[in-house]
Design a protein that fits this description.
Two copies of one chain form a homodimer. The first copy, chain A, is of the alpha/beta class and 214 residues long. Chain A folds into two domains: 7-77, Arc Repressor Mutant, subunit A (Orthogonal Bundle), CATH 1.10.10.10; 83-195, NAD(P)-binding Rossmann-like Domain (Rossmann fold, 3-Layer(aba) Sandwich). Helix content of chain A is 41%, strand content 18%. Chain A contains eight helices and eleven strands. The first copy, chain A, has helices at residues 7-25, 33-40, 44-52, 66-77, 92-98, 136-141, 154-166, 193-206, and strands spanning 30-31, 58-59, 63-65, 83-88, 108-115, 124-125, 128-129, 131-132, 147-150, 171-174, 187-190. In chain A, the strands form three sheets. A six-stranded parallel β-sheet of chain A has the order 8-5-4-9-10-11, with helices on both faces. A three-stranded antiparallel β-sheet of chain A has the order 1-3-2. In chain A, strand 4 (83-88), helix 5 (92-98) and strand 5 form a beta-alpha-beta unit. In chain A, helix 1 packs antiparallel against helix 4 and helix 2 (33-40) packs across helix 3. The longest helix of chain A is centred in the first third of the chain and has 19 residues, at 7-25. Chain A starts with 6 loop residues before the first helix and ends in an 8-residue tail after the last helix. The interface between A and B is large, with 66 and 65 residues. The complex binds nicotinamide-adenine-dinucleotide (2 copies). One nicotinamide-adenine-dinucleotide sits between chains B (88-94, 114-117, 120, 133, 151-154, 156, 160, 175-177, 193) and A (96-97, 100, 102). Chain A binds a DNA duplex (30 and 30 nucleotides) through helix 3 and strand 2.
DNA sequence: CCTCGATTGCGCAATTTTTCGCAAATGTAG
DNA sequence: CTACATTTGCGAAAAATTGCGCAATCGAGG
């Protein structure tokens, strides 16, 4: 029964969900795998196959009901509830993360923020006050935190991650440029724009087209 | 001769390069695929296979010379030269990007910044002055820009991307939560923390372990 | 100069992921 | 009620990716 669902499939579902939400806002009622695929740059067959891991959500000859499919995806991904997150490292990037309006509407609530630097500790951002990272264990002891966001310098990141894991966090969104080590029950996703750039340059490099149009 | 190299392989090379740079800073001279793999959480066989697309860089019985392999990877990825980038959208995130110290040391230079908002235009950040996005075409007309970084709200992102492509940019680092449409000769990498979170919750959701250790 | 433990590079097998192809539904139009 | 244009879900084929196994090679030590 528990057929293994590939990670790649899980990674695509949020993309489908985002597109469906957009279609929904535009008032669209139904969409075919064909159209959705064109919009997202994936093949219709892939969308249908991905969805088929979870059930039968479409109607032959019609396509998918946008609202219905969006709800199903939310349920599948666990987006039909709130997730509690903490941010560690409130520098440039940490500030941007804390004041980003894109998390809360999706059910991702940042409930604590920590930093090591005295000039940041105590600072109020939104309705959070930055606490000392040294007191993180205690601060998190009573509460249930699902996800830790790491935005410290690379040198501090692994120890911060260890502390988050100790505190019961089961997923890490890691902005620091390191390969994090975590126990197997903890998920990690890395966000590193430099790695993204460095893989794109491979293709740019060999592009012979080189002249800016005069 | 031009054996097709899988995209997944290209995506891993920067990760290897980053680890090698770290080993190099630690004064390590050689490393085996075994050790590198353990550090990065990939199998040694995968590392060897990936590298074998490009040549033979190791010595049997020894492993890889750290400096040598790092140089080779830099060459392969095109990191042995400078890349010129522009940032469009200088809000919270754009600020963090502009003042991020992690790009320049890797050869990624931000040479212009644009925004639509009068309260940001003219502002100096580092040694750049934010210019009006309306004048982007003209500002970029003379120069060769390799990569565009998009940090505008979603609603503006596609038109900004179109303008960047028009200006001759061949790669886009897109922070906006949209599925960008670009001509085939343009590369896009998306950075979207919400998508990352939304795929991790799939696994958290089904985790039965739920209680924070008292 | 021989032996031995270590480690690469790579052909090939195994596994994973994507794509194909089509029967079965669905809605529409006549 | 029938014909028809669509589009799904899914088994099976194809393609892509990963992992295995091992001959060849390296350096150290004697
Ligand atoms: N700024 C960006 O655009 C950007 C982009 C990608 C990745 N990153 C990465 O994100 C991280 C943060 O980048 P930034 O630009 O915000 O740097 P920053 O120096 O502005 O902020 C780092 C913050 O972490 C705090 N800190 C240091 N050690 C700590 C510890 N042990 N515990 C808690 N807090 C600690 C510092 O006091 C500081 O406030 C870095 O790893 C960087 O490589 C940044
Ligand atoms: N802040 C984050 O942590 C974060 C994280 C991930 C993704 N994002 C995404 O990055 C983008 C920027 O986020 P932010 O938090 O910096 O938002 P922001 O509102 O602080 O900044 C957006 C900036 O874009 C400018 N802008 C608007 N339209 C423009 C146009 N047509 N041309 C040029 N500039 C234009 C605005 O004037 C503003 O300065 C958004 O798409 C957001 O979803 C942000």
């Amino acid at each position: 029964m528990p057929i293994e669902i590939p990670d790649v499939v899980i990674d695509r579902l949020p993309v489908y969900a985002r597109a469906l939400a957009s279609l929904d806002r535009q008032g669209r009622d139904v969409v075919s795998s064909q159209e959705l695929g064109a919009q997202l740059g994936v093949t219709p067959a892939q969308i249908r196959k991905d969805l088929s891991y979870f059930g039968r959500f479409g109607k032959q000859g019609r396509g998918y009901n946008v609202k219905r499919l969006l709800e199903e995806l939310h349920q599948i991904l666990g987006l039909d509830r709130k997730w509690r997150m903490v941010v560690v490292g409130v520098g440039q990037l940490g500030h941007a993360v804390l004041s980003y309006g894109g998390f809360a509407p999706q059910g991702f609530d940042i409930v604590e923020a920590f930093d090591a630097d005295a000039s940041v500790i105590g600072k109020q951002i939104g309705d959070l006050v930055v606490k000392p990272v040294a007191a993180m264990r205690e601060a998190l002891a009573g509460q249930h935190i699902d996800i830790g966001i790491v935005a410290t310098p690379a040198a501090a990141a692994q120890q911060v991650i260890d502390a988050l894991v100790e505190s019961g966090v089961r997923a890490i969104l890691n902005y620091a440029p390191i390969a994090a080590h975590v126990p197997r029950h903890v998920r990690v996703k890395d966000i590193d724009p430099v790695l993204s750039l460095q893989s794109m340059t491979f293709y740019l490099k060999s592009d012979l087209a080189h002249s800016p149009p005069k």
